[in-house]
Amino acid sequence: MRPVAPADGPGVFVTSIGNAGMYVTDGETGFMIDPFVSRYGIARVALGCGMSPRLNLVAEWFDRVVTHGCAAVLVGHSHYDHAMDAPFFAARAGCPLVGSESTANIGRGAGLAEEMLQVIHNGDSIDLGRFHIRFIQGEHGPALFGRIPYPGTIDRPLKTPAGAGKYRMGGFFGIVVEHPAGTFIQHSSAGWVDGMYEGVHADVFMPCLAGRADTDNYLRHVADPTCATTVIPIHFDNMFDPVGWARGFVPGVDFCEFLDTVAATRPHLKVATLAPGVQSRILPES
């Protein structure tokens, strides 16, 4: 395993903000995926206590990672650790919030105007500068006691403070990001629909590690069909600790098992990691 090379030369750059969150830019256009920095302790989350976005952290991380503007904030699914902060990043950028109808209802609850909400469906795509981005519907993995956590949809504007259980999953999308420098896929839950990436080629695949069961089977259904040559795991740091200060891994994630399985079953596949707050070039691959 190796860290991704720091930013140097032309290409596509990613700055992790922990969990599944990231800022993406090619030096001309930038956007965010699943930005989440308002982390709360595990007891507060488990007990369903109300949580509000920590706007000071939203401002701090926006100013820290956004280097070339933010043309959109994309959300793969509407659980709190992917979507709670997203409308506030979009408001700070003055850009659209892009996701499911459930994500749009989180945006409405945050006070975003309708013209700042873009609802997407399976197979939809958007263009941001030289980026072409596609949304492919899948299934969320059974990440909580063998079940999908907080299933269902958010059917009315969701205002904060709200407990984690109010952030219903709302449908899951794999996000395919195509650019002249190459293609990467952000896959923010350890579930899938058979064939969801059939015919989709990627250079880099970003699999969620939280909630996975059988690593080999998981990669066989999500990463292998894309013929990716590099995997950059996401959603494994302890999301109950502050970004950049996480003590180890989120409960239940066996990071070493992931590395061992990749090494044993896919020796051709490179594994790289992203350091929170550090801009790194992921495409073209070095």
Explain the overall architecture:
It contains seven helices and 15 strands. It has an eight-stranded mixed sheet with strand order 1-14-13-12-11-10-9-8, with no helix packed on it. A seven-stranded mixed sheet has the order 7-6-5-4-3-2-15. The model has no long low-confidence stretch (mean pLDDT 94). The two termini are 14 Å apart. Helix content is 20%, strand content 22%. The chain has helices spanning 42-46, 55-65, 80-83, 86-93, 101-109, 215-222, 255-265, and strands spanning 2-3, 12-16, 22-25, 30-33, 73-74, 97-99, 117-119, 125-128, 131-138, 172-179, 182-187, 204-207, 230-231, 270-273, 279-283. Helix 5 (101-109) links the parallel strand 6 and strand 7 (117-119).
Task: List key phrases describing it.
286 residues, 7 helices, alpha/beta, 7-stranded mixed beta sheet, 20% helix
Return the average pLDDT rounded to an integer.
94
- The largest beta-sheet arranges its strands as 1-14-13-12-11-10-9-8
Overall radius of gyration:
17 Å
| Percent helix range | 10-25%
Q: What's the SSE pattern? A: EEEEHHEHHEHEEEEEEHEHEE
Number of helices: 7
How can the largest sheet be summarized?
Answer: 8 strands, mixed
**What percentage of the residues does DSSP assign to strands (E)?**
15-25%
Report the span from N to C terminus: 14 Å
- Which structural class do the helices and strands define? alpha/beta
Topology, number of strands: 15
* Spans where pLDDT lies below 50 across 5 or more residues: none
